[in-house]
Amino acid sequence: MIVPLLLSTILALTPVWESKSVHFSWESKGEGYVYEFESYTDWELTKLYLTLPPTTKTHIDPVFYHSGKYYQRIKYYNPNTPEIYSYWYLGQFYLNLQEGILSEDGPENPPPIEDEPENEPENEIEQDDEVNTPNENTQETLEQIKFQLPTIPDFREKIADIFKKEDTQRKQEIDNSDTCKISVLKNEETKIKEWDCDIDIEVSTIKYIDWDKYYSLEIQGKYPKSIKAEIQIYECKKFSITDINTWNKCKEVLTDTYTGDINLIYFGKIYANNKAGTLTNFNFTDSEFQTRSTFVNDISKQDVKVYFSIYSQFKSKEWIDLAYTTQKSITIPTAVKAAAVKPFSFPLSKLIGVTQWHGCTQYQCPHKGIDFGARLHNVIAVGDGTVADIGFDKYGGECNQGGRYIIVKHTNGMYSAYIHLDSFLVKKGNSVKKGQVIGISGNSGMKNCQPLGYHLHFETRKGLSSSTHTDPVKYVNVDWNLIPTLQYKQFPGRLTGDNPHPNF
């Protein structure tokens, strides 16, 4: 009898469940809605036990690791308007992992309540004696009692009243709090589970300009360079044969917390009608930003959103990287026609990047024009005028040969020069119109010196001589932020000179 008795004692001490998955489901609130599950250990809904990331499903199977009473609800909202949300109460239940009890506590299935004994004090002792003396008829009753739930009050009516006040109170708490709530899952890579942060990004200036063939949208504003944060770090528990929740899936376990300021690094991109514009400029300082994109169509009547990619690092047990994207919708004005304050157009039929700027560079000082990385592209006249000179320059020395060139005298008295051409399409003395194709870009001259390859060397001059050269940026009417600097990693000296790009 000793062995069976010992075995029964061990079994009684061993929990039936180490954890328990509980299924919840609810009706769909409509297309596009997302749901966030919350479980509390008190009916006032102040002691949060478990929260899960947003989901579009209408069912969920959270895992509970402790015995006790639990009260559930879901938060539902449209992700396009997350500031407008509501709650739906999912009910309450009792869980006893040691005895294997999982039961709802609802009006349709209330816990059993024993009848109160009549007021006969003299018989109380006798009644107790009878209960404490089991027989064949009472044994079954005792086993049933063992698995009965303790009496749990039904707080649904009280919770309904709380919900009426909850939204207002919670919003006030969020408004009054300046601390972000962040939770991350650190596995092979860091994933953000929750980002409850109100990043106060303020748009101050919007410029929307019609450049004839495209539209430029520039947005300026301010943002916080740091935020106060409370961060919970979760990791996946290693596989355990005794824990089914680690079998072929991640069991999230809280391993560390961090509370303090985190610095933020921003990058912005503009979307119109869910399509990204061509990013032409971005500048983010400690607290201010400027981002500019171009679009091929008029977007004044479309929804415009600025997406801010936010990066940060913090040191807990180890360094952890954070990456999060937020968005801000704005209303943009109607495009304004850009004023043509510069006399010349772009010297090529399409916008092509620069391989060397005007001014003193690593390769030449002065470099009298701008080199565009054009291979056999149409070269156009930048203004009305007459072909003043045309030919092949081979007198500049081994490294300064111009090759085939065209020089145009314009009606405003200035000159433009097109050098290293592959071929001519005009003759000396011909009249040319602004936008007319006058030649093809090439690689003539300078074959044994700078490894620039095919390109157009373009100059603006105040006279016929190259000694009267000026910076073409000041005279060519184009958004120079659309003109990238090419091959700057291989040839960093080309970044010097009168480079109009502040970020390169």
What is the fold's blueprint, element by element?
Blueprint: H1 2-13, E1 20-21, E2 24-25, E3 34-40, E4 48-51, E5 59-60, E6 63-64, E7 68-77, E8 85-96, E9 101-104, H2 124-131, H3 136-146, H4 156-176, E10 179-186, E11 190-196, E12 202-210, E13 215-222, E14 226-236, E15 252-263, E16 265-272, E17 275-276, E18 278-284, E19 288-295, E20 304-315, E21 319-330, E22 336-337, E23 354-356, E24 370-372, E25 378-380, E26 385-393, E27 403-410, E28 415-424, E29 431-432, E30 437-441, E31 456-461, E32 469-470
Parallel strand pairs: 10-14, 12-22
Antiparallel strand pairs: 1-6, 2-5, 3-4, 3-7, 7-8, 8-9, 10-11, 12-13, 13-19, 14-15, 16-17, 16-20, 18-19, 20-21, 23-24, 24-31, 25-30, 26-27, 26-29, 27-28, 28-30, 28-31, 31-32
What do you see in this structure?
10% of the residues lie in helices and 40% in strands. Strands 23, 24, 25, 26, 27, 28, 29, 30, 31 and 32 form a ten-stranded antiparallel β-sheet that branches. Strands 4-3-7-8-9 form a five-stranded antiparallel β-sheet, with helices on one face. It has a five-stranded mixed β-sheet with strand order 18-19-13-12-22, with no helix packed on it. The chain contains four helices and 32 strands. The protein has 504 residues and is mainly beta. Strand 12 and strand 13 form a beta hairpin. The chain folds into three domains: 15-112 and 131-170, Immunoglobulin-like (Sandwich), CATH 2.60.40; 179-337; 354-495, Glucose Permease (Domain IIA), CATH 2.70.70.10.
